[in-house]
Amino acid sequence: MSDESKRDHNQGEDRHARGFMSTSTSIPTFLKRLSRSVEEHDGSRVVLALDLEPRDTLVDRVCSTIDALACYICGIKINMHLLLPSSMYDIKYVNDHAHSYGLQSIADIKLNDIPSTNKVAIDSLTDSGFDAFTINPIIGLDALNDTINHAHSRGVGGMGAIALVYMSHKSAESSYGMQVKVASERASNQDPLSSTKLYRIFLEWALASDADGIVVGATRPEIIMECREIVGKQKHRITAIFSPGSGAQGGDPSIALRSGADYIIVGRSILYSNDPVKEASRLAKISSSYPPAWA
Ligand code: FNU
Prior knowledge:
By secondary structure, this protein is of the alpha/beta class. The chain has one domain (23-288): Aldolase class I (TIM Barrel), CATH 3.20.20.70. The protein has helices spanning 3-6, 9-18, 30-40, 58-69, 80-83, 88-100, 115-127, 141-152, 198-208, 221-232, 253-259, 268-271, 276-288, and strands spanning 46-49, 75-78, 104-111, 132-135, 160-166, 179-183, 193-197, 213-216, 240-244, 263-266. The radius of gyration is 19 Å and the shape is globular. The N and C termini lie far apart (43 Å). 6-amino-5-fluorouridine 5'-(dihydrogen phosphate) (FNU) is lined by residues 49, 51, 79, 108, 134, 164, 167-168, 215, 217, 244-245, 247-249, 265-269.
């Protein structure tokens, strides 16, 4: 079936209406919606990174991948692989398709601009059916606050915001792991600046701006552990840890989850395995065997 003939907007709307969001009278936030998806998918805390090669019939291939793997995942994550070669209409179609299985959809755009531009981007993502997006805290605390407040006021129950704290690739160490000096209450008169790592500031800002989640690479279990301890001390709110970087990037999903990740984000090791269903099912089982850190 061609992309064209599959793209029946009304059909997508109907599927979404039959999805879990319509059965609730309350307006759940992103993390509540995601938790519900975990329950509906046998405890899987796998978010599938839909990083397929941008060739013809991309939307068809993305939708049939969702069809094949939906029962082993709790959400999908879409990034430039799909966003750049697709129209907003295609993206809405894919998101509606994911919603028809009760899955949540994250736009991995690492939002990183002035607040007024960020807000326009968030409105478009909302219109395209996304439930959450990733954001880069380098924009600063006030801009994060402004942008995330806007996100929380959008869509049904608000768009979730997931802040980068420590990325999974090797050279993340030279930026997220950078030693920086900041003015701090802890500093002494002799040295008004105290020294810390950049990711610790990003974590502090993510929590201060009510981000729904943070990203810490599965390749950095010790940083996941450190973040889990700090995130876990919050009394009145939950911030989930999303961990990409298992498999193809060398991280171990079990170690990431044991270290405190709530969700693993996995792409290539599922998509390009000899048996994607088997691999997704294996990761779903692993993830369901670690209870969520807040339970
Ligand atoms: P896979 N991703 C990542 N590391 O890998 N958003 C990060 O620190 C981060 C991400 C994304 O390696 C990456 O773009 F913030 O094939 C890709 O879509 O399993 C996915 O996570 C990992 O894909």
